[in-house]
Amino acid sequence: MGEIFGVFAAVLSSALGGTSIGATRYLVGSIDPLAIGAFRFGIGFVLLLPLTLLRGDRWPKRGDRVAAIGLGTLFFALFPILFNAALIFTTAARGALALSTLPLLSLVIGAALGAEVLTWRKSIGVVIATSGVAVALLSDLASAPSGAWRGDLLMMAAALCMALYGIWSKPLIRRSSPIAFTTMSMAAGAACLILLSHVCGSFAPVAGFGMPQWLGTLYLGAFGAALTFYLWAFALERTTPTRVAISVTVNPISASLVGAWLLNEPLRWNLAAGIIAVFAGIWIATTTGRRIEAAGASG
């Protein structure tokens, strides 16, 4: 049952991540993407810190703190920098597809490091879910600017950061707590982004913010950072990195739905087909462990 909750939390986290892409696209015309990341994770840290203190959660042990800070820098600082840089060279659709290589990377790296078992059913589920993303984005993949491959490679590098974070953070989260670990890691990433934003003068446009921009920024901090990454850590504590990572295929689906609602972007038949394939792939990949465990218990 705990693993089911973990998979559900991962899917909800990725769905919220997709809505955050819509909010980011709304804000990117008003403020530098670097500053958006600084606000997002800075606000997320401010919201998570009192919750962690009130709950009395276990912070990472002294021996784990350097690793937590390093992983926070990898995931909450380097990842958004690579993500934003990728979208300079490639389209959002191609970027979303490149990011959806995350479950494949998690599967291969996790198996190589002995973090989880590589199975045919899990592999097939990853391929089906990733194919579902390609189908959902089919109408947008053909329109690519010259040199889009550079953006695709940067986005795959961002996915690699997420994969390594998911694999390496799992034992650290278990030794502390999801909220406390996420809070410490997010603090490290937010500090890096705030410093870079200050040096680059990225906060200058904030003086012209109106209520819509502030609401978008608060949404990113509360839901796109605090809740999204708490759920991600909660999921990593309860299931394997690949089963968490495969949920990222929900991200571009929810981003498309938000884009249709908030930005009046068209919805096409391929989105519905992609949604079905994504959830079919997630179901196939996430039911493996329970069947094997049940067989083992019967034996």
UniProtKB/TrEMBL annotation:
Residues 5-137, 150-286 form the EamA domain. InterPro entries: AA-Vitamin_Transporters, EamA_dom, EmrE-like. The chain crosses the membrane at residues 33-54, 66-89, 95-117, 124-142, 148-167, 179-199, 211-232, 244-263, 269-286. It is found in: Membrane. SUPFAM superfamilies: Multidrug resistance efflux transporter EmrE. It is a multi-pass membrane protein. Its main location: membrane. The keyword Signal does not apply. Coiled coil: none annotated. Belongs to the EamA transporter family. This is EamA family transporter. It comes from Bradyrhizobium forestalis.
